[in-house]
Specification:
120 residues, alpha+beta, 3 helices, 5 strands
Length: 120
């Protein structure tokens, strides 16, 4: 189920090079990536875990509401991060020319589907 969901996101999004589901503990649940990505998406996502925890804490401290999405843009890649539950999140890696709008749409669809799986 998870691999199929991640494959759909990557295949339907221009410029997508990988996607994963990760826990806030930094442990990946599922991952899919295209050959020749040039980096380990698990390592990058694990590093983002500390950032996500901090953003979640800060959002709570200033009462702006829960995190809906986080986008990190670097020189060659963009990373879209979307919470599934309070403990798990999706990460999608795009090349710099990737379709961010389509990526956001695909992640939202996946989030809604996965919320049900993780709530059991």
């Amino acid at each position: 189920m998870f691999d199929e969901t991640l494959s759909n996101i990557v295949n339907r999004t221009d410029g997508a090079v990988g996607a994963l589901i990760m826990g806030l503990d930094g442990i990946p649940v599922a991952r899919i990536d295209k050959p020749g990505v040039g980096f380990d998406i698990d390592v990058i996502a694990a590093e983002f875990t500390a950032l996500i925890r901090k953003v979640l804490r800060n959002a709570e401290d200033v009462a702006v509401g829960p995190l809906h999405e986080l986008i990190v843009t670097a020189e060659r890649h963009t990373f879209l991060i979307k919470p599934i539950t309070v403990d798990y999140f999706l990460v999608l890696a795009l090349r710099d020319s990737g379709g961010v709008g389509r990526a956001r749409f695909e992640l939202r669809k996946a989030q809604l589907m996965l919320e049900e799986e993780f709530s059991v």
